Structure prediction request, 192 residues.
Amino acid sequence: KNNVFMHSREMIPMQSFDVIIWVAGHSSVAMCKLDPPSAYANNVLYFKQFINEYCQLDEEQKPLLIIASSSSVYGKKYSMCEEHFSLPESISDYDSSMKMREEHLAASNVNAVVLRLGTVCGAGINHRSELMINSMVKSACETGKIYISNPETKRSILFNRDLAMIVIKIIEKNVVEKITGLNIFNAGTWNM
Prediction:
């Protein structure tokens, strides 16, 4: 089948793919604070529309979905959280939107792997210097010092190379044995 699914104006039927990776949306608390209505549309409404279209496919036509979620759904818990823990009340629009995605998936007939990602960091084309590790490295290089804000906050982190390896492993497993149902996994170091 095709290698890449691009959700764009020029739609390619999703059943043409073996795997679809969904990373679209407002990807941080800060981004969601800038424009809450747009964040809700991107993170929840468009996602639900996509999943509803996916659920119209016959079971044998459904590609595996790999969905980016966030460890922020756990709130400010300071200990390691397991996937089966009940989720606390959301503390931001971002957390709430990720929980709404997962709730919609749970109520839908999907073949999906949800990755509750720690803060993704590392070098890349769209380098985000405001992210924790990226910010620390930038500060160290520019000033010779590392500045820490919110030292009481614990964060899970995930390097982008590790995320790529996780996605590759999921795809390889799906080739050997089709992944079915809804599967939720934490991805990151717990808790730095």
About this structure: Helices lie at 29-34, 36-55, 93-106, 132-143, 160-176. Residues 1-6 have pLDDT under 50 and may be disordered. The chain has five helices and six strands.
